[in-house]
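Problem statement: downstream parser choked on a complex file, so we are re-checking the raw output for the nicotinamide-adenine-dinucleotide run. The parser issue turned out to be on our end (a line-ending mismatch), but while we're here, posting the original submission so the record is complete.
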Amino acid sequence: MEKTVKFALLGCGRISANHLDAIEHAPHAKLVAVCDIVEEKAKAVAEKYGCNYYTDLETMLDNEDIDVCNILTPSGYHAEHGCMVAKRKINVFCEKPIDVTKEKADMLIECCRENGVKLGCVFQRRTYDAAIKTKEAVEKGWLGKVTLADAYLKYWRDDEYYKSDAWRGTLALDGGALMNQSIHGIDMISWIMGGIEKVNADCDRLVWDIEAEDTAVIRVRYNNGAMGVIEGATTVNPGQETFFAVHGTKGSIIFGDKGFYMWELEDKSIPVPEVTNSMGGANCQYNETNFGHTYLIEDMAMAVLEDRAPMIGGREARKAVDIILAAYKSSKEKCDVIVEA
Ligand SMILES: NC(=O)c1ccc[n+]([C@@H]2O[C@H](COP(=O)([O-])OP(=O)(O)OC[C@H]3O[C@@H](n4cnc5c(N)ncnc54)[C@H](O)[C@@H]3O)[C@@H](O)[C@H]2O)c1
């Protein structure tokens, strides 16, 4: 029989549905237990998926034989909870963002390294064809010298959303439109372009009664010399499909959640790539097929079985957090900020 990797979930909130579905569909993953401080949530998942449930992480770790624990708690707890898991020599699979400060992100990365466990992180958009092909076009020089790269990340979240849980929109546990929603697109455009060198940002709270930003514009300079604009907001009604545009001296690519809107290269021998998956519908929080989460769960399982690094490790996951923290600093101090490498 083929080997399977035993997964447990910490946190049975909104995103747990994607992880449960992904574990069910990933050929080498198996769910053994779930934990949530709210007993009804853990119990409901356990009953549906036929696994054990707990209301305390340490008790779950004492009683279960687990290979990987998925950290699905509020963002500002990721490092603390991930370290509790890593110290038990159990691999960590962490939702975005890795945490909301550089210090905590580094603490988790270091703790996993010290304890010899793997740290896999979620940025499911990195698994989508349109993003992968655009990155290839940049790297192979199909666009010539790339001069501009933009990301438009215009979401709608209402008052009900921000009031649904006390942690939402707080600086300590969540962050705002950049750290929660736009981080997906920020990670993606930075990954496609080979990193961001410096930012100049304006982050503000224009609508919602939260601590963090709900609307932001970031002017960026990429490591490869190109310039660009990133807009991130949760104040746009109706929420828009996220959009990415990359332009160079030999071509232009524009794509959104559903695939390419433009693939115009001077070299006509490079065909428009086929897009077999999508990032979901307009302003969709989750993609329709759960392809990205399933891909990353299977990758994490195979990383354990093959004793290799997972596709997105801690340092990779920290990059988007570094960019957002630099944007916060730039907005506060009204100056350019170099993104920490
Ligand atoms: N990849 C994505 O597209 C995506 C989408 C949504 C959320 N997320 C991330 O997932 C994380 C959770 O978000 P959510 O929307 O599911 O939040 P949520 O509030 O719906 O769920 C969080 C759950 O954690 C539980 N919890 C809190 N402290 C706990 C503890 N000490 N032990 C056990 N359980 C505890 C809460 O009771 C709650 O059920 C966030 O970091 C968020 O950024 C990622």
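For whoever reads this later: The pocket of nicotinamide-adenine-dinucleotide is lined by residues 10-15, 35-38, 41, 57, 72-75, 77, 95-96, 122, 124, 165, 180, 286 (CB under 6 Å).
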